[in-house]
Structures are given as C-alpha cells and as structure tokens.
UniProtKB/TrEMBL annotation:
<keyword id="KW-0547">Nucleotide-binding</keyword>
<comment type="subunit">
    <text>Monomer.</text>
</comment>
<dbReference type="GO" id="GO:0006207">
    <property type="term" value="P:'de novo' pyrimidine nucleobase biosynthetic process"/>
</dbReference>
<dbReference type="Pfam" id="PF00406">
    <property type="entry name" value="ADK"/>
</dbReference>
<keyword id="KW-0808">Transferase</keyword>
<keyword id="KW-0539">Nucleus</keyword>
<comment type="function">
    <text>Catalyzes the phosphorylation of pyrimidine nucleoside monophosphates at the expense of ATP. Plays an important role in de novo pyrimidine nucleotide biosynthesis. Has preference for UMP and CMP as phosphate acceptors.</text>
</comment>
<dbReference type="GO" id="GO:0005737">
    <property type="term" value="C:cytoplasm"/>
</dbReference>
<dbReference type="GO" id="GO:0005524">
    <property type="term" value="F:ATP binding"/>
</dbReference>
<keyword id="KW-0418">Kinase</keyword>
<dbReference type="GO" id="GO:0006221">
    <property type="term" value="P:pyrimidine nucleotide biosynthetic process"/>
</dbReference>
<feature type="binding site">
    <location>
        <position position="138"/>
    </location>
    <ligand>
        <name>CMP</name>
    </ligand>
</feature>
<feature type="binding site">
    <location>
        <position position="170"/>
    </location>
    <ligand>
        <name>ATP</name>
    </ligand>
</feature>
<dbReference type="GO" id="GO:0005634">
    <property type="term" value="C:nucleus"/>
</dbReference>
<comment type="similarity">
    <text>Belongs to the adenylate kinase family. UMP-CMP kinase subfamily.</text>
</comment>
<dbReference type="GO" id="GO:0036430">
    <property type="term" value="F:CMP kinase activity"/>
</dbReference>
<keyword id="KW-0963">Cytoplasm</keyword>
Length: 236
C-alpha cells in the first residue's frame, strides 16, 4: 500500500491513530492527505487483504461491517457471493444451493472465481474476505489464482453453544440456518476450516479474537488487531 519513509512515521502514526478512533471519514482523510502531501509514498501494487474466519454464527459478518465503517475496507463475503449466484440463476446455482443446504463446501474454483471478479470490480486497496478460505483446497486455489497470501487472518473464537444460539436466531431466511445443517457446518468447520487457521497461526498471520461479549466489546479487540496489521504492512 505505502512505502515506508522513516521521517514521516510519527506524522503518519498520529493520522492513523486519529483515523482508528474517529471512523471511516477521518481514516480516508488521513490517508488521502498523506498521499498528496508526502513525496516518496506510493501505493503498492497489491491490495491489503484480510481473511475473516470463524465458525457459523461467530460474528464474522457483524464485525466486517464495523471494520468497513472504521477502516474503509471493501467487504466480500464468500457466502453472500455464492447466494447471489443462486439468486441469479447461474449455471452453477443449483449445485451451490444443494451444497449449502448440506452444509458442505462449494468447489474452490467457483468461489475463487467469484472472489477474483469482486476484487477486480472493488476498486479499493483494502479487502476483507469473509468466510474464506474454509478448507486447505480453498486456500491453495486462492494462492494459485490470485498469486498472493493474505496480509492478516482474523479468527473469531466462539463457543459452539453460542454460535448455535446466534445462527438459530439470525432470522435472515437462510436455507442453512437450521439445527440439522448447523450441526453439519460445525463438523465441516472443525475438520476443514481449523487446519487453515492452524496454517496461518504457524505463519504468524493469525489474529485470534475472543468472539464472546457484545458486538461493540468484540470490535474493540478487532480495532486494535486491524490497526496493528495495517501498521505492520506500512512498515514493511
Ligand atoms: N456479539 C454478538 N452477540 C450476540 N449476537 C451477535 C453478536 N454478533 C453477531 N450476533 C448476531 O448473531 C448472528 C450471526 O452473526 P453473523 O455476524 O452473521 O455471524 P457469521 O457471519 O460468523 O455467521 C446474527 O444474527 C448477528 O446479528
Ligand atoms: N468459502 C466458502 C464460503 C461459504 N461456502 C458455503 C458453505 C457455507 O456453509 C455457506 C454459508 O457461508 P457463510 O460464510 O455465509 O456462513 P456464515 O456466515 O459462517 O454463517 O456457504 C462455501 O462453500 N465456501
Ligand atoms: Mg456470515
């Protein structure tokens, strides 16, 4: 995103701090004023990408909305992209619907293609990719197609009973928000998603967030983690 210039770091730090505490408007102003005033700062060619992981109902979508408001990311939910494919009667629609009803994972090439198209259309240099990768196969397909690893991985750690309670009271009319499918999704989460989380933990990219408490309490933890990761990227 930006190249590091040592003499600017304290000015930038106060801009970043102001942005993190004042919301998206200030964040964007802080960055755009830095961008025009500071010679030697250039946009890096690849965007800042954060994967957002956690079991069903762990709060990924809720926290992504707050990250967007505060830090100006573009939010891409893999589940939403797949549901849009179903709604648009695309050739893969019925296969995707059957897979989601069963709580299973849609073939990676379908999901990665949707994510790639959304990133290209997104015209931003910060993306949240929510609910992806959900398996090692998802992860490998993304790295192959996009040719990059994420800058950070947020993981919402939440007890199963709390996740089940939240999913069953979500009330968005989703075909997979029922007890039978939730049990299958939790099994898929442990078997396929947890190894991906472990992979990023070993790589030092994982930011594990306690997903219990109110949405605002959780966001206080998220805000610090995102802020730190943006700073790290800045300093690279
Ligand atoms: N901290 C929280 N406490 C209680 N309910 C929550 C909390 N965060 C989210 N919810 C609610 O739980 C449900 C699942 O949250 P959501 O953000 O959709 O999770 P995910 O995307 O991980 O499945 C939604 O109805 C949401 O409003
Ligand atoms: N990478 C992904 C993401 C979602 N899916 C499918 C399978 C998931 O159970 C559903 C719903 O995903 P979504 O992220 O919207 O679900 P939650 O927000 O975790 O409740 O979509 C997938 O096959 N591959
Ligand atoms: Mg979600």
């Amino acid at each position: 995103m930006w190249r590091r210039v040592a003499s600017l770091s304290s000015a930038l730090e106060s801009d970043l701090m102001q942005a993190a505490t004042c919301g998206a408007g200030a964040w964007q102003r802080a960055f755009s004023s830095t961008q025009v005033e500071v010679e030697g700062f250039e946009r890096k060619s690849h965007p800042f990408v954060a994967f957002v992981l956690g079991g069903p109902g762990s709060g990924k979508g809720t926290q992504c909305m707050k990250i967007v408001e505060t830090f100006g990311f573009t939010h891409l939910s893999a589940g939403d992209l797949l549901r849009k494919e179903i709604a648009s009667n695309s050739e893969n629609g019925s296969m995707i619907l059957d897979t989601i009803k069963e709580g299973k994972i849609v073939p990676s090439e379908v999901t990665v293609r949707l994510i790639q198209a959304a990133m290209e259309a997104g015209r931003n240099d910060r993306f949240l990719i929510d609910g992806f990768p959900r398996s090692e196969e998802n992860r490998a397909a993304y790295e192959r197609v996009i040719g990059a690893e994420p800058d950070m991985v947020l993981f919402f750690d939440c007890p199963e009973n709390e996740m089940v309670k939240r999913v069953l009271s979500r009330n968005e009319g989703r075909v997979d928000d029922n007890m039978d499918t939730v049990k299958k999704r939790l099994r898929v989460f442990s078997e396929l998603n947890l190894p991906v989380i472990e992979h990023y933990s070993i790589k030092g990219k994982l930011r594990k967030i306690d997903g219990t408490g109110s949405a605002d309490e959780i966001f206080e933890r998220v805000r610090s983690a995102v802020f730190a990761a943006l700073r790290e990227r800045e300093e690279r």
